[in-house]
Structure formats: structure tokens, C-alpha cells
Amino acid sequence: MEGLLDGIVVLDLGRVLACPYAATMMADMGATVIKIENPKGGDDTRKMGPFVNGNSVYYANFNRGKVGVTLNLKEPEGKEIFKEMVKKADVVLENYRPGTMEKLGLGYDVLKEVNPGIIYGSISGFGHTGPLSKRAGYDIVGQAMGGLMSTTGWPDGPATRTGTPMGDVLGALNMTVGVLAALVNKQRTGKGEKVDVALVDSVAAAMENITMIYQSTGRIPQRIGNRYESTYPYDTFPAKDGDVVIAAGNNKLYAILCDVMGKPELKTDPRFAEVKDRVANHVAMREIIVPWTKQHTIDEVDKLLNDAGCPSCPVNTLDRLVVDPQIAGARGMFPTIDQPGIGELQITAIPAHTTRTSTAPRKAAPLLGENNADVYGKLLGLDEAKLADLKAKGVI
């Protein structure tokens, strides 16, 4: 399966989610991603659930498509082996706390001397500059300090983390974009680059218009549930069997909603005449819509509104999501891999679809050190005796 990144070699030192996910996206786009793990236990997610037959599904999903080796970077021989790998690589990815790679003698300033064209991507909580750079950072820290938690949840509730680790996901996406841009620049200039991504920055950037409300008006946006600051009705509403989204984001769509509900008089009601009026009177607007949605199932509301041209959709629970004919069917977002120790496993694909090439997962996630002999033999020319010696020393 040819991919857009065929021929690109990525050394993945990442652990847990943000960095491994960035490397997984590159693997699904065709890069040769070599996952480098500590010989003593490997990636932390090997011990994180859910588990099938004692094997981590978490690890399998975020490390599919990679080849796996073990290497102790604290050992002098391990450092030298890593440098030899860097000579033959295009990208190095890591998510250690800033300063860790420098203490190992393997920071960007060292590696760019080994390979001037290397693209060095680093994801951390706060980035490599600033007074908080040495702090540890996790997804929930990124969501909290980046402002997302302050606007997530309900007016009478506490600050709320999103249901999925968006700080890590946003960090991974920004890292992938930065590294790919650096690769394009390298084609033009021949020069490498360091790409420094912080989880906090990634969340702060994603706040977009919420931040601009404060910057332009001085008003601090608060938690407002599922409705939107700038338009209404753009919210979730209760149906007979769950919740449904109605996204009547402009006057045309609002008029369609009024007609479908059988309430054309609302189109000329001065409380709801313009978007700003509906935002100001969202409580009264919601009190009119809820009795109508409660008369129908979520699928009925979805069909009635979309058939008329107004955006609507179910709030899918996971059992619905993984069999959704659009997402799971037509878009193939949950392909199956054959994962050693687990068997057939539905994983989550990357959302980029390409026309000439494939972005499908190319192989299962590696067992710990599974490809040591192949990678160190073919890439670095180490023979069986040398590999046995390195293993005996705890280097691999």
C-alpha cells in the first residue's frame, strides 16, 4: 500500500498518547516508523487498559503500523546506536519533559550535528521555553491551563474536562502539521528543524473565538452547556430516546426549523428575528423547541430536519458510532487489524483520506523489541553476536 510518506523514516521515542499518536498518523500515511522503547517494560500504555488476553488495546491502537525495537538510552552504547539511527532517519519524535534529552546528550543541538537535515519534533506540557517549561504536563493540565475546562460544562457545574483527551490529541495534530511542514521546507533548503509543541499552547490555540470574545469585549466566557456563544438554536435537545443536535446557525436555517416544527409564526416573532435576538432569548427559544423534539426519536428529528435542509444529527453513543453507516461504513473509520495476543481488533483510523495512496493501517502494533534483529541488522549492520552481546548488557 503506497503512502504519501513512503521513504520517510521516523524514530518514535514517544510514550502514552500525544507523541505516539503523531507517529501513528505518519505511519498510516506510509512512513517507516521505528518505535524505540526502554527494554524494561516499554511504553507506559502497555500496562494501561482496556486489556484483551492481558494485552493493552490502548497500546495497540496508538502504535499500529510501526516496527518496534528496544534501546536503553542511558547506556553509552545505546546512545551511540541511537545516533547511528539518526544518521539514517528523517524525523525524531519525543515527548519527554524538556531537558531530559539534553541530559542524555541527545538533544536537538547534538542530533543536528549528527544529521543536519533531521526534523526534531518535541511535545511537552509547556514547551521548551518559558518559566514553566520544566514542569510535567498531562492532558488535563493542558485542558485546564489552556482555558478549555473553564468553558466546558454547565453554568451551575464545575469546570469540566472533555470526555476524550483533547489536549493530547490537539498536541499530536499540531506536531504532525509542524513536522510535515518542516519536511517540505527541508526539500527546498536541505535544512532540518526543531518543532516545539506544548499541550497548553495547543489547547489555547483551539479556543479561537472564545478567546476573541474576551479580547474584544472584556467579557469572560463562562460554561454554557452545549449551546454556542454566537448563534442559536445551536444546541442539544432531548428526544424520546436520547439527545439530538439542531444547528440552525443562520436566518435561513432557522426559518426551515420553524416550518418543520409547524410554527411559521416564530419567523416573525421579534424575540427571535435575528441571530443576536435568538442568542439573547435562547431560554425562551429552547422552551419552544424542547416540546417538539420530545415528540420524536433522535432519528426522526435528524431525518425531518435534514430532509428539509436544516443541519441536525443524533448525539451518538459509542454503540451507535461504531456502526454508523456514514462514519464506520462509507468512511471506514474503524478498520480491523490482526493484533498478536489479541486477535482481530477494530481500531480508529486517521481521518485523512487520499485519492492516489492509502492511509489505512499497514500492520499491527509491535511486540516489545519484536523487530530488534531486523532493524539493527538491516539498518545498522549489527550481526547476531553483537545483538546477543547488547542484550546481555541490557542495552537492548
UniProtKB/TrEMBL annotation:
Pfam family for this entry, one: CoA_transf_3
Coiled-coil features, chain-numbered ranges: none
Domain of life according to the entry: Bacteria
InterPro entries assigned to the protein according to its UniProt record, in alphabetical order: CoA-transferase_III_domain, CoA-Trfase_fam_III, CoA-Trfase_III_dom3_sf, CoA-Trfase_III_dom_1_sf
Database matches in PANTHER family: SUCCINATE--HYDROXYMETHYLGLUTARATE COA-TRANSFERASE
UniProt GO MF annotations: CoA-transferase activity
SUPFAM superfamilies: CoA-transferase family III (CaiB/BaiF)
Name assigned to this protein: Carnitine dehydratase
Alphabetic keyword roster: Transferase
